[in-house]
Design a protein that fits this description.
- The complex is a heterodimer of chains A (291) and B (228).
- Chain A is mainly alpha-helical and 291 residues long.
- Chain A is 76% helix and 0% strand.
- In chain A, helix 4 runs antiparallel to helix 10.
- Chain B has 228 residues and is mainly α.
- Chain B has one domain: MetI-like fold, CATH 1.10.3720.
- Chain B contains 10 helices and no strands.
- The radius of gyration of chain B is 21 Å and the shape is flat.
- Chain B starts with a helix and ends in a 5-residue tail after the last helix.
- The mean pLDDT of chain B is 89.
- The chains are: A mainly alpha (291), B mainly alpha (228).
- The interface between A and B is large, with 65 and 77 residues.
Chain lengths: 291, 228
């Protein structure tokens, strides 16, 4: 892998002296981390935040049954629906941007660029108050739909861009081959280019699903009872807000980390199944707005 | 129609829309500087020969990249401030602002680190080898040869991170900062008749903030690209 060599070559294979220096620095580094952890933990212990009572209640069946699991279910429910809708939105507007008809291209471009520039939270607040006012769904379901729609418009636009760049990154021969056997341009797009572009972009899409899952936590601000909100409720009730939020964050980290690992695995596995590059290129979409 | 426009114009007299946007811009400014510094440090750790620092850098990135920003901010306000009683400023409102900058900084530093690392990957191996060949050790090689080129190669992902940061300043609403998304909520709650216009105003504000950054980074990444 080019990436690892470029980094490893920064320093030579180390001789005895450099190894000694590195070993010393290693110890210093470990001590530094330990000192930092000690200071933080000491401060926490002083305030009684490490008391067993504050933590024990988090690992009881009651806590998970009544607070964390229902919250997680709500989070996953919103994320899952948002993923499905975003992919559909992305397909429609991604293909729209590749359309033969200029007006379709313009409209799709405008839609995609607009929704990529607007913060997800702003859209969620708009839908939250807008749907509630318009009486479109029952009042209890308003925050849920606000979260899902906000996520769909933003992430759908990002996925539209992924699909477009996926098609552009395919070797030119793929399109030419399609046209050469007598397919129309739009059938070439649908039958030859799109399947390969989707395969090539799958790892990037999985990374985008991490963004979707993380951003469901914005629902907390518009009263959607997701994991963060239920952890807060739990923590305020039991007087251990710090600990409850810590556990909620940990749940997010674990799920997202697994998704990241899946994306890395997919990008290696799928590289045999498409003519396009499965690794995000160093182009405009590298490190796409995953923040 | 003119009635509607008048209603809409009265909103600007009633609410400080530009002032709220200014808060977002200030949040972006301070958090951008903070996350650039912290992110460069973490990136340096991740490419260093010292294994414990590498591990620490990787741990930092994996932890903060995978935690929702909302949780970080709520944790800082409800946990660190309210529970532990650590105030970052004696002024009540300023305290929330500083906490928001802190939260935005630690979160985006993880993305800055990854952007710089992707920039480091654009530096050809020969550059690092040449630096070693003339006798530079790790830190001088990184400072004089690798980082100047890596930063120029990282402009596009850094620009994307800056755009994401600009938009994410709205999440500071979770840290009780009165910025534009909080103001938008108030405006719509009190004046639901002009909801669409309010939304479009805020959205347009962000388009105006974000699009120049995108154009600027595209221009800069071409202009400053290392000719190879």
């Amino acid at each position: 892998m080019a990436s690892s060599t470029a980094q490893n070559v920064l320093f030579d294979v180390q001789g005895p002296r450099a190894r000694r220096t590195t070993a010393v620095l290693n110890v210093v580094g470990v001590l530094l981390v330990a000192a930092l952890a000690w200071a933080v933990l000491g401060k926490l212990a002083d305030q009684g935040q490490l008391d067993a009572t504050k933590w024990a209640s988090l690992f009881t069946g009651r806590t998970w049954e009544n607070f964390l699991l229902p919250g997680l279910v709500q989070t996953l429910k919103a994320a899952l629906l948002a993923v499905v809708l975003s992919v559909a939105f992305g397909l429609v507007f991604g293909l729209g941007r590749l359309s033969q008809l200029a007006p379709v291209r313009w409209v799709s471009t405008a839609v995609v660029e607009f929704f990529r520039a607007v913060p997800v939270l702003v859209m969620m607040i708009f839908f939250y108050l807008g749907i509630g006012r318009a009486d479109l769904v029952e009042p209890a379901a308003v925050p849920f739909w606000a979260v899902v729609l906000g996520l769909m418009f933003y992430n759908g636009s990002v996925i539209a861009e992924l699909i477009r760049s996926g098609v552009h990154q395919l070797p030119k021969g793929q399109r030419e081959a399609g046209l050469a056997i007598g397919l129309t341009p739009s059938r070439t797009l649908r039958l030859v280019e799109l399947p390969q572009a989707l395969t090539a972009m799958l790892p990037s899409m999985v990374s985008q699903f991490v963004v979707i899952l993380k951003d469901t936590a914005l629902g907390y601000i518009i009263t959607y009872p997701e994991l963060l909100a239920s952890a807060r409720r739990l923590g305020s009730g039991d007087g251990n807000i710090l600990q409850a939020l810590f556990v909620a964050a940990l749940v997010f980290v674990v799920i997202n980390y697994l998704l990241t690992v899946l994306a890395a695995w997919l990008s290696r596995f799928l590289s045999y199944r498409t003519a396009g590059p499965t690794r995000p290129a160093e182009g405009p979409l590298a490190a796409e707005e995953t923040a | 129609m003119t009635d509607y426009l008048n209603d809409f114009a009265s909103l600007f007299a009633q609410y400080d829309v530009l002032g709220a946007f200014w808060v977002n811009i200030k949040l972006t400014f301070f958090a951008a500087i903070g996350s650039m510094l912290l992110g460069s440090l973490v990136a340096l750790m991740r490419i260093s020969p010292v294994a414990s620092l590498r591990l620490l850098g990787t741990g930092y990135v994996n932890l903060f990249r995978n935690t929702p920003l909302t949780i970080i901010l709520v944790f800082l306000i409800l946990g660190v401030w309210s529970q532990l009683g650590i105030a970052l400023s004696s002024d009540f409102n300023r305290n929330f602002f500083v906490y928001a900058v802190l939260g935005l900084t630690v979160y985006h530093a993880a993305f800055v680190c990854e952007a710089i690392r992707s920039g480091v990957n654009t530096v050809p191996v020969g550059q690092a080898e040449a630096a070693r060949a003339i006798g530079l050790s790790f830190l001088p090689a990184a400072r004089l040869v690798i980082f100047p080129q890596a930063l120029r190669g990282a402009i596009t992902p850094l620009g994307n991170t800056l755009i994401a940061l600009t938009k994410n300043t709205t999440v500071a609403a979770a840290a009780s900062v009165t910025e534009i998304s909080a103001l938008m909520k108030t405006m719509i709650e009190f004046r639901p008749d002009v909801i669409i216009a309010v939304f479009l105003t805020v959205a347009l504000g962000f388009v105006l903030l974000v699009v120049p950054v995108g154009l600027l980074t595209t221009w800069a990444s071409r202009k400053l690209a290392v000719k190879r």
